[in-house]
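Design request, tokens follow.
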């Protein structure tokens, strides 16, 4: 095998490697998007489940601790919103 053949073979190998790297990168981008879709779906499920628990349509002992955390967080948000409204009213 001559020098030209060796260079040609190495160039082909590099092109294959670059093509493979491009495919891996594209697949990783798609994977990240799919993972985002999963997280969004879980978030929507959580909202639906919370609403069902809040209305009494769904009960399960395993949900109680997390439901309590959500209720506490919602109360903190409501308290902070009320504080902001009061501060704004002072300026009027």
């Amino acid at each position: 095998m001559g020098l030209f053949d060796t260079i040609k073979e190495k160039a082909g190998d590099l092109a294959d490697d670059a093509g493979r790297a491009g495919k891996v990168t594209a697949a990783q981008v798609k994977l990240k998007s799919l993972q985002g879709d999963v997280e969004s779906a879980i978030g929507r499920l959580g909202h639906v489940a919370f609403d069902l628990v809040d209305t009494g349509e769904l009960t399960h002992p395993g949900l109680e601790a997390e439901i309590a955390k959500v209720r506490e967080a919602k109360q903190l948000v409501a308290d902070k919103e009320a504080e902001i409204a009061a501060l704004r009213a002072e300026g009027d």
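Comment from the thread starter after seeing the answer: thanks! The two ends are 88 Å apart (CA to CA).
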